[in-house]
Amino acid sequence: MDMASNTVLITGGASGIGLALAERFLRAGSEVIVCGRREDKLREAQRAHPALHTRVCDVAKAEERVALASWVKSAFPRLNVLVNNAGIQRRLKLSDIEDWEASQQELAINLEAPIHLSALLVPHLLQQPRPALLNVTSGLAFAPLAFTPIYCATKAALHSFTLSLRHQLADTALQVIEIVPPAVNTDLGGPGLHTFGVPLDEFADAIVERLRQGEREIGYGTAEKARRASRDELDEAFQRMNSRR
Ligand SMILES: NC(=O)c1ccc[n+]([C@@H]2O[C@H](COP(=O)([O-])OP(=O)(O)OC[C@H]3O[C@@H](n4cnc5c(N)ncnc54)[C@H](OP(=O)(O)O)[C@@H]3O)[C@@H](O)[C@H]2O)c1
User: Fold this and answer.
1) Domains in the chain, please, with CATH?
2) Is 43 touching ligand 1 by the criterion CB < 6 Å?
């Protein structure tokens, strides 16, 4: 895809991978709108990038997704790219599960929101030149890390949804793209939990290069291996990743 001259909505775009993508779209000459729950994070991102548009929105809530979609279509009628990036990751033991509300939030943010926002915005995107929809999944969609069971299940489901959406829209101009990150050094799951991941800029630069080349499913590092792996290789990866209980 051409990174220039787009109008792009990125959920969860005030930090981490979403912000790194926002910066690259901005630099290439696109208009970018980001949303998130924390107003201070949005303000911080806007201070660093004055051209950035921001909107407070909790994508876990259906009514806020509807309001976001309707606001963005009227304020930015040229919107031609949606990036479903917002996500959370929780570590939990299913035998201890007591906080269903927190689990439901994780399902709503990581899975319900991208499906609902796609449904709300695809008809609009289809009327625009060079439309694209990007879903951010994970290498863990292919082989789960058992201590983040709900997270991994949402990412596997979002991978599946992305395949179906791409198939349904194959006869249209809308490009349905999946970004499959490995562990990347961001605040995912809370500050300090992902410091072992690959550097954010290295990851984002590699992804953007492949977006420019027109690829539709883009992994990096271990996630690139996972998305191309055979079932035997995934079983082996699962054992290796989960060997410590
Ligand atoms: N980092 C990794 O290792 C890794 C690996 C694979 C996949 N990913 C995926 O990459 C995406 C971005 O994560 P990240 O690593 O960049 O982590 P991050 O820095 O924590 O970013 C997540 C963003 O999502 C936003 N968000 C969370 N819940 C939201 C909600 N209910 N409504 C609106 N925005 C919400 C957060 O902002 P607020 O808290 O202000 O709402 C934050 O800006 C996620 O989908 C994640 O699953 C990350």
Assistant:
1) 7-241 (3.40.50.720)
2) no
